[in-house]
Structures are given as structure tokens and as C-alpha cells.
Model the fold of this input.
Amino acid sequence: MSDHGYESGRLNLPFVGHCTFGKQPVQLDWDRIEADVAVLGAPFDMGTQYRAGARFGPRAIREASTLFSFGHAGVYDFEDDVTYLPAGETRIVDVGDADMIHTNTIKCHENIELGVRKILQAGAVPLVLGGDHSVHIPCIRAFDDQPPVHLIHVDAHLDFVDSRHGVLYGHGNPLRRASEMGHVTGMTQLGIRYVSSSNKQDYEAARRAGSDILSVRHVRKLGTEGVLARIPEGVRYYCTIDIDGFDPSIAPGTGTPSHGGFLYYEVLEILQGLTKRGEIVGIDLVEVAPDYDRDGTTAFLAAQLLLATLGYMFHNQPLGRKRAAAARVPAAGR
Done:
């Protein structure tokens, strides 16, 4: 891009304007979504067993994401020698939040599911900002009329509880509920460690359901390529990322921190590798709780991880390359 390109239009610094995700346009009419990616907030945290507060996660991630807004030129990564998310080649919209009905878990989940279904009907990739991890249940349920998906789950906890005192839809249940859905063909669960939400029987049930469970130490021993080699190739991936999968030294702002977690590049490189092996068709990132975030570090981590992953998706995945090529073709008469 020429120097003139950097000087045209508004400067639009991160602290200016409204806090949409990546400072992207708003589309609150869910019947008029025209985008490649649609960002939906799911500010629900009534499924928590310990510290609540993730209902404010979507706002915190959106505000943090303004630091990484693409501006006029996209994001140049000198290590990859690629400009990711160049202006005009990707369409990202922020569709606001699903409505929350306090104390009514089922209705809240239904509202989240509706939002994801609307995004999918528009042909866009849903990127959902939680909320506690129970919001994954309506998110993945919304894919029941789509081609099958393989789940990539990053977390400190297995989240494979079946029922505890009658609770079926808390933040310890989402992967168990997902495993019961016919369009989920398998799971890769990464980062699971120490005091989990599940007991030994739940681990055994997860393996019977087709889950490959790897701790942080397993992942480090295998390395990025070793982990990717265990994941089915050429399939559709849905990624559900609990921020407590990361170490609390870099992600303190969460309800159930667990030491011994991932660092940034360990997860980022796996996600980048996935976009070269198959297609990421949906993402939710959950459990950011800004009240426990010392200086915004956790929200910045979440926003940076998501924006980087979107860049890889549109650079490496077939659909992203097709759309980018179409954007570069001048319209007739220009």
C-alpha cells in the first residue's frame, strides 16, 4: 500500500469511537447479515460453579480488540511475510449480543442458539464471545443442520460432567452435551490438567465418545506438529476455547484459574496449523471475567488470539482464499 493509503480517511485510534469487535461495522438485524464472519456476544455466566463475572467478557474482549483493529492496511506479520485481514478482502460484522433472561438458563441458551443459526443461515462463520463455557452447548447445537464437525477444545478442565444434582447445562457439562450430538464426529481436548471439573469415570466416558485428551505437558512433549498429526485432516473444525486453558500468569481474569497452562504461541500455532489441514467453521471463546483481570491482560490475550486466528483462516482456508481473490477482481466498468 502506498503512503497515501495510510493518510486517507480518519485516523480512528483505538480509543476513539464505539467498541465493536475489531472496530468492525455493526449489524443488529440478524436477517440482514452479509459477512464472512459475524461476532456474537453471549454474556451468560449463570452456569458457573465458582466465581461468576464472565457475563462481562464480551464487553471486555470487544474493548481490548480495538487495540488490534486493522485500520487501512491489515496486519503485516514479518515472520510469515503475510499481510493478514487486508482491507476490502474480508467482511466482519458485530451482531451484538444474544438477549439474556436472568435466572432462565434454557431461554438464554435458546437466544444464543438463535443468533448462531442466523449467522450460519447467512453463510458466515460465527465467532461467539462468552460468557461461561455452558454457552458452547447452544453454539454447537446450532450446527445440527450443517455438515459434521470435529471439536477442538482448549481448556484446563474436561467439562464432561453428565449430571450433577440435576444440572445438565452448567459450565462443567458442555463437552458431554456436545458428544451426544450426531453432527459432532470427534473431539480433541487440549490443556486438560490437575483439578478438573470431571472425575475418572468422565474421562473414560470422553474417550469412549471418541475424545483424544492431551494435557499441557503432553502437548509440549509432542510439539505443534505432533499434536496436529493426531487431529483428523481435511475436516471441518469447531474450536471452543476456554481462556483458563492458558496459564494464569498471562490470563488471570477468569473464574477458575489453573496453574500450569498454555502460553500464547502454543495455542496460536496449533490454530494456525488447523487452518492448513482443514477448515475452521466456528469459534467460541469463553470464561473471560474482567473483574479478576489485573490490567486487562486476559481480554487483550483473547482479542489478539481471535484476530490472529481469523487472519490465518482467511489466508489459508479455501473459502478465505476464494473470497480474497474475488475481492481483488475489479468490478465491471471500474
